[in-house]
Amino acid sequence: MIMIISFASDLIVNILEAVNLNINDLSTYSPVEFFKTKIFLSLVLSLIFSSPLWLLSIYNFSRTGLTDFEKNNLGYSFIIGQTFFLVGCGTGFFLVTPYFLDLLLADSEIVIQNLSVYETIKIIISTTLFTGLLISTPVFTLLINRMVEGRRDGRKYIYTLILFIAIVATPKPSMILNMIFLISFVLIAEITMLVAGVKNEN
Asked: Which of 9, 11, 96, 124 could serve as a FRET partner for 34 with CA atoms 20 to 30 Å apart?
């Protein structure tokens, strides 16, 4: 995190330029807001870059109590899930986020002039992470579906995880956005379980 924060200012400018925003057009509402933005960005990137390490640590800690079937499922799910997550983040940053911001701004100069640097970066990062998590949803859905006996119990764990992710990854806390993201996760999870169920019957 300390290494990232040293060049966080350049990262903020580059991130804003990538979604067609100029930092000079945005506002800062307090002297410490830009520093808070740097801390937030550094923390998120540190968690993303270190995620393979702490996922591996969780796996190594729990593997002694797992069966061979569970070990194989977790191992493949971590690798495939991480790949899907990174692909989703790339898609979210370069495709979804610019469209989402255009939808929010609606070509309004008044809105652009009142945008906060911190809130804008938060929206960009949250939308990017949300897309990554959404695309990796089928992976953890299949993992839970395979490791938990009974479709009802599987749904309970899946919906609990979806609810947590939807709350954490919501770009701007609001009832409407929470519902949109929650419905998106549920649809992906239900389609995945439906396809998996049909395949198992065949």
From this structure: 96
Q: Which of 10, 182, 18 shows the shortest CA–CA distance to 92? A: 18
Neighbours of 149 (CB within 10 A): 8
Q: Per-domain residue ranges for the chain?
A: 2-201
Q: Which residues of the chain have a pLDDT value below 50?
A: none
The dihedral sign for the CA sequence 196, 197, 201, 202: negative
| Predicted confidence (pLDDT) per residue in 68-82, tens digit | 888 888 888 988 999
* pLDDT one-digit tens code per residue, 29-54: 677 888 888 998 898 888 888 888 88
Distance CA 52, CA 130 (A): 18
Instruction: Output phi, psi for 193, to 5 deg.
Output: -65, -35
Residue 173 and residue 152: Cα distance in Å, rounded? 29
DSSP H helices in the chain: 2-5, 8-18, 33-62, 68-91, 97-105, 109-113, 117-135, 137-147, 151-169, 175-201
pTM to 2 decimal places: 0.85
For residue 174, the 8-state DSSP code is -
Residue with structure tokens 């740097």? 38
- Compute the radius of gyration of the chain from its Cα atoms: 19
State the burial class of residue 36 (Cβ atoms within 10 Å of its Cβ: 0-12, 13-18, 19+): middle
Cβ atoms of 185 and 145 within 8 Å: the answer is no
What distance in Å separates the CA atoms of residue 140 and residue 77, rounded to the nearest whole number?
7
CA dist., res. 10 & res. 133, Å (int): 26
